[in-house]
Amino acid sequence: MPTSIDECAGQLLAQGYVAQRELATAAFLALRLQRPLFLEGEPGTGKTEIAKTLAAMLGRPLLRLQCYEGLDMAAAAYEWNYARQMLEIKTADARLSADDLFSRRFLVPRALLQALELPGPPVLLIDELDRADEPFEAFLLEVLSEFQLTIPELGTIKAAEPPIVVITSNRTREIHDAVKRRCLYHWVDFPDAARELEILRQRVPGAPEALARQVVAFIQGLRMLDLYKLPGVAETIEWSRALLELNAVALDPQTVQQTLGVLLKYQDDIARVQGSEAARLLEQVRAQVHHG
Prior knowledge:
The protein has about 290 residues and is α/β, with parallel strands linked by helices. The protein is about 50% helix and about 15% strand.
């Protein structure tokens, strides 16, 4: 467990995660204060990756609860094994009581309950909470504030040691204040050019320096355009790897044209960029890199 912000940032960097000072501070405080960390920001800015990095950094297991519309407690926390209960009823010699039927051996734990019971404790990633329905947030409040879960038929299960909780949201809708109040909050923005270049050096160490600088400058330019979906850091890394596979040592119009689908995921965005816009950006990149 890190004992300072600098140590936390250094340990994250050792795992290949280049964190802003503010994010390193939020992560450090979340660990020291045993508070959930709530991260909002554009897709592809490294929110999910911070949970994976914390798990690797601390040597803890990672439990991921991927949120989606219709997610309920049966999928997120626990459910009763009704098939086994019915089989038990049919095969039992004596009549079973309700306590027998709703004992622990019939309980199927899911991510939230597993996070409270695993030793370690684990890192619990509640990913893209904004995709879940609003009522689901109410189910989380007990876990986030007390690190416990009340099962009506069984009782309250409390973590011996609180799990490390990271919640992410792409802000497709607002998350209720009741959830945010129980967390430390940080907005994860697109990195500036210097930090994005450092991320690229960490994640794609085989990329030539000149190519890496051109990639970062081109993507920084793309983010200035009015696109439906701006490319994130994940796309920066992916594009760099793709360019290496194509043995590219520098950006050229043909290579950019042929690989726009690695960067942009909507045809309207590709149509907006390809051709003259890509050429303009490329010319701008060459001028920046040359003068830099």
